[in-house]
Design brief:
This protein folds into two domains: about 200 residues, Quinone Oxidoreductase, Chain A, domain 1, CATH 3.90.180.10; about 140 residues, 3-Layer(aba) Sandwich (Rossmann fold), CATH 3.40.50. It has twelve helices and 18 strands. Strands 3, 5, 6, 9, 10, 17 and 18 form a seven-stranded mixed beta sheet that branches. Helix 7 links the parallel strand 12 and strand 13. The relative contact order is 0.16.
């Protein structure tokens, strides 16, 4: 079948992207789902910094690639051996499927699935299959098993979670990465204790989701750190009790002053090794620093080694909110429906696929939280 999609052929093209046009909108050939796979008509796809990191080359991936990883859609067909989903089911994508057989999967950590990590690195689905071809017959790689910037896509059964059809699909898409990662960082990775203090560095979609999660978990105070007052204002609306503009104030000193020594939980969502050091230094004795951002693989961060022992500090990595998608997505959606996670406030704008390069300029400049590509679902 034919599908219209955004394809990245080369990483590292210079901004502004409205001029360099790194994402090319093309009509592609998409083969149908194989065993254990599903065909999905994409309804909405969010623009995330993880996509931007591939476009600018700081998160290297195999090329060429059909981009996008945060999305919602409707099942249109299922392959052999898929008996628990059917055409018409509404789904949210998960960009880390789970084979269910490796040691991480067997021990309750599907986000660390070895087979999924290999497939994502190789630009294939969990089975090793690839389904996109361009007009020249070139096979195109899948982005994180999703490739959401396409009208239609094929994914592994393990890459989709069925959701309530009453949930608006533009809001549903944001749960696939921003909410799952940010709220998951609070509940799953940090295990935040009610009444504990929490500082979050970086007010993008994931960081603002962490602010919502911290509020829902009962944290106090909740401190938002960013360079833009506009984003700090959104953080206040979502539950931050204090805000710090790191362009004008030292966030470490500010957080220590607000918390009388340091935050019990300090969450870094920028993808900067320098900000990670700040988050660590702003954490309390006995505190935990959770790092969610994705710096360039060549970057290193340095901290006082003795402080890990003398101050009993902890540094924890967090990938995809340490989530168990089949458990967490329904739970977080229920929290949204109960008014505990105002996810709809993250939605900055809906855009057409043809406007995607300009939209990444807005994301790169910090002018948007979550822009969502809106497809015309049949």
């Amino acid at each position: 079948m034919k599908t219209r999609a955004a394809v990245l052929y080369e990483m590292g093209q210079a901004a502004p992207y409205r001029e360099s046009q790194p994402l090319r909108i093309e009509e592609l050939e998409l083969s149908g789902p194989g065993p254990g796979e599903v065909l999905v008509e994409v309804a909405n796809a969010g623009l995330c910094h993880s996509d931007l990191s591939v476009i600018n080359g700081s998160r290297p991936r195999v090329m060429p690639m059909v981009m996008g990883h945060e999305a919602s859609g409707i099942i249109r067909d299922v392959g052999a051996n898929v008996d628990d989903l059917a055409a018409g089911d509404h789904v949210v994508f998960s960009f880390m499927p789970s084979c269910g057989r490796c040691i991480p999967c067997a021990t309750g950590r599907p986000v660390m699935c070895n087979a999924a990590a290999s497939a994502n690195a190789n630009g294939t689905l969990l089975s090793g299959s690839q389904h996109f071809r361009n007009s020249s017959g070139t096979t195109l790689h899948h982005h994180l098993g999703v490739s959401a910037f396409s009208q239609y896509t094929v994914a592994a059964r393990q890459s989709v979670i069925r959701i309530d059809p009453d949930l608006p699909l533009d809001i549903a898409a944001i749960f696939g990465c921003a909410v799952k990662t940010g709220v998951g960082a609070v509940f799953n990775t940090a295990g935040l204790v009610p009444g504990a203090s929490c500082a979050v560095f970086g007010m993008g979609g994931v960081g603002l989701s962490a602010i919502m999660g911290a509020r829902a978990a009962g944290a106090h105070p909740i401190i938002a750190v960013d360079l833009l007052d506009s984003k700090l204002e959104i953080a206040r609306e979502l539950g931050a009790t204090h805000v710090v503009n790191a362009r004008t104030d030292d966030p470490v000193e500010a957080i220590r002053d607000i918390t009388d020594g340091g935050a019990d939980y300090s969450i870094e969502v920028v993808g900067s090794e320098k900000v990670l050091v700040q988050a660590y230094e702003a954490s309390a004795r006995g505190g935990m620093t959770v790092t969610v951002g994705l710096p360039h693989p060549s970057k290193q961060f340095s901290i006082s080694a003795v402080s890990l022992v003398a101050d009993e500090k902890t540094v924890k990595g967090c990938y995809m909110g340490s989530a168990v998608p089949a458990r967490d997505l329904p739970r977080f959606i229920s929290m949204f429906e109960a008014g505990l996670l105002p996810v709809d406030k993250l939605l900055t704008a809906t855009i057409a696929l043809d406007d995607i390069n300009a939209a990444f300029d807005a994301l790169d400049k910090g002018e948007a939280v979550r822009q969502v590509v809106q497809f015309d679902v049949g």
